Every structure is written in C-alpha cells, then in structure tokens.
User: Fold these one by one.
Assistant:
Number 1:
Amino acid sequence: NESEAETECYRKAWRLDRSCFATHFSLDDNAHILDRIRTQLLEGHRAERKIRAEMDHLNVYSPGSFFKPHKDTPRSQDSFGTLVIVFPSAHTGGLFTLTHPTLSSARDSDNPEDSDVWTFDSSTVLSSQPTPSFAYLAFHSDVTHSLARVTSGHRLTITYSLHFDHHHPSYTLPASAAYEEELLLAVKSILRDHRIMPNGGVLGFGLRYAYIVQPGKTPLEETFRSLKGSDAVLKRACVEVGLEAELR
C-alpha cells in the first residue's frame, strides 16, 4: 500500500521488535560498553547517575537495504541516546554516517558544510578481526544518522535506547573531558578581566545538544541535571568558579 511504499523510500530493512526474538547477547556480560558510553557521551557530567540500556529491536539489512538521514525520537524525558550492536555477520557496504551541526552553525541547518561528520564502516571493522567479534556505536538522540546500501551479505544489528537511571543515582564519572581544563581557564580569564561587565551582569551560553522540554510540564531543574557532553562540561566549569549557573 501507499504507506509501505513511503516507508521503503525512507528505510528498507527487516525489523523485529523486542517481543519477537531472543538472543544470548547481554550487556550485563559486556559492562565495559556502558562504562565507555558514560565517559564518551556524558563527558564532564558530574551528577552521580547511572545509565541503563533498553533493548528495542533487531534489524536485518540484506543487499539493497538502507535508511535515509533521520534522528531518533526520544522515548521519555530520561532518554538521551541510542546504542547499536553490530554482529559479526559477513557483509559489505552499509556505511553508517552521523552528522551534527557545528558549534558555529545554526541548529536547524541542513547544509553538510555546517556539520561535523563521522562514518563507521562495520563491514571493514568486523572483517579485520582475527576472531568473530561484535562492533558497537552510540550517539545522542539529536544526531542525524543514515545507512548506505548494503551491497552483499547481511548486516545484523540490535538497537538499544539509552536512559539515565533514576533508580540508581550512585555513579560518578571517573574522568573529565580533555578540553575541560582549557574551558575552565577561559571562564576564569573572563572573570578576572574587569573590562568585561565592570558593573556585573549575566553570561549566557547556548546549548549544543537538544533536550525534551514540555512547557509547563518539564522542570528545567531536571533538564539541567541531565545535560549532555560539552553542555555538561560548561555547566561544571561555571559552578567550579563560583557562578550561579541555571537553565533558562
């Protein structure tokens, strides 16, 4: 029908929801994955919060399968990203591309020249391993991603949604971002320069990442505790120098 035709123009792949398949793969046996996500996607985030991954669906990409650029829709206020596990099934093609607006560009810009671009070639990564291994990648919900056509074999993946775990708020991230010290020095330099706002004032910083905020329903304090990546690093630097940081 017309709906199926429109879907195939946007995405072509076999999909099974969580209730329709079983797997021996478990993130409990691969805890290093979530540990790495904490330090890479949530860099500089000092809130003592754990994260959890909820298995969502399985995809099988056969020759000719693909999906066009899109963003994942966050399932809830506590969701912040997506984890994709790629299993060691032989295939070629299927280059995974992620794009995100640069700090100097407009958030809604569709111009590739205004975006940072990353690619992940699972077929090359997996085929180069001496023993069967899985590959994985994780990204924030506001990152646009696409998959080029698979040219041979079958690309098999399981997708998880990533969430902050409000029931176990006892994890402290071990490492700060590499650029955090440089940012902290820059903020201190601004505060020491008496030519900048000699009578006091308000410093405003735009956020790089997107967040779910429902006017009148979502407390900004809750969003402020869930800042991502460089947004969290900026907040941390402001707090460390004694500024009263808040989200407006």
Number 2:
Amino acid sequence: MSRAMLKVVSVSWNVGTLVGLAALLIVGPSPVHAGQQERSQRPYPALQREPGDPEIVARGRAIYGVSCRACHGVDLRGGDLGGPNLLRSGLVLRDDRGDLMGPVIRDGQTGVGGSAMPPQNLSEDDLHAVVEYVHDVLGTASRQGGPPPGEEVELDILVGDATAGQTYFADKCATCHSPTGDLEGIATRIDTPKELQDTWVRGGARNAERPPITVTVTEASGNRVSGQLERLSDFLVVLTDADGRHRSFSRRGDTPRVEVDDPMGAHRDMLPLYGDADIHNVTAYLVTLQ
C-alpha cells in the first residue's frame, strides 16, 4: 500500500471516529444508563405520587380507623396491639398503588418473631381507599417518619423542678457560672424557654463564636511554648503561637508535658451525662433568673 493510500485511510478513520464521538455527545447516555439514573433518583414510589382523590382518601381514613388503627396507630406509627410503623415500612415505601400492600391487607402476613397480621375482609374499593389514605399521609408528611400534617402543637418544656435544678446547678455549674454574674437576667435575654434550654445545653448561643482552645508545651529543657491548639494526638501537638508561627512537637509518653485549656471542655464532658430530668430541672431554674 502506498504512502498516499495510508494517509487517506488514516484521515478517514480519524474523521469517522470524531463523527462517532460527536454523535455520542449529542445523543447522550444510552437508554439503560438513563433508566438506571432515573430509578436511582426515584427510590420510593410512595413518595413520588400525585395527591389522591380527596373523597377516596377520606373514605380510606374512615376504614383505617375501624380496621387498622388498633394495630398501626392513629398516626400510622404503630398501635397498642403491636403493629409496625407504616411510615417507615419498606413495603409501604416501595408500594405502587397497592401492588405490595394489597396482598398483605387482603391475605395477611406472618412477620418477624411469629407476629401475624390477620387478613382483612375488605372489598376491592375499600382496600384501594385504605392504600390511598396511607400513601396520602406518607406523601404529605414533613419527612419520612414525621407526623401527619395538622395544626402545630406548642409544646410546654417547662416541666422540671426548679428547686432540683438549682441544686444541680450549684453542684455542677457554679464553678464557672453565677446566677448573679454572667447568668443574671438570662431569662430576659433569651426569647423562649426552648431557646434557653438549647443555649445552656450546647454551652452558648447558636452560631456564637467559641473561645479558642489553647495549649502550653513544656519541653524537657524547661522551655515553655504557648499558643492556640491546632492538632493534638498521642504522637504530635501542633499550635500557633502569638506571632502567628506554627509550631509542632513530637510526643513520647509524657514528654513534652502538654497542658490544654479548653473553655468549653466542661460542657462537652457533661453532654453524655445529662439525663432528661437534669435538663428539664435546670431549664426550670434558669427561667426564674429574670
């Protein structure tokens, strides 16, 4: 084959390749990949449905109240007779207009540990209405497992014992805080009891700038270096000194000596120790600091 022919073949192949690549870019991914992407973006049919017919949903609500409520609860989260939470049920989430829920409602099902759901003697129309109602609740819930929509309920969190809270405060908190010092009038400076509770539990106002953690390193020679702690492990300590220089020190056991001053350390240490009663009692006490 002559050099001229080789050049023609080479050019033709390159042009063909470019045309093919351009076609792929224009057409986009293959149908298989597109379908896979669509399925990955729509994992739960129950959360992708259009709202059901209001009359059918209302009918389903009434039937659910008679036939299902005792086991699955008024809010679908499980009832007195031990039925599962329908808002978190994988079967309900995967159901598409009754294809999975229908057979279970109609024929019953044996669950984990031998628990059983008895078959329900419902007509096809009634069964369809119950399915529509369950999907309506699931589709309009604030999030998976959230409560069904309705009027917002204002919760009263002031259920603790202020006297017990004062005792707890004196024992656990008075070393750093004072009701006549930094906490004087705190109940008038924070809008609501809920925000007050959140503030003291987290150790400060939301988005407030936290004081830095500082560290002092004492070397074997007695030389002391202090600054803002950047990193601390069993093998290394890194700090930024007052001049802005980064200093790092290798650690071997207790050498060099490392002293950390964490202003928020006590709050972090207490977080796993608080009980519900402690939180409620301290909040009830702090509300009295007007």
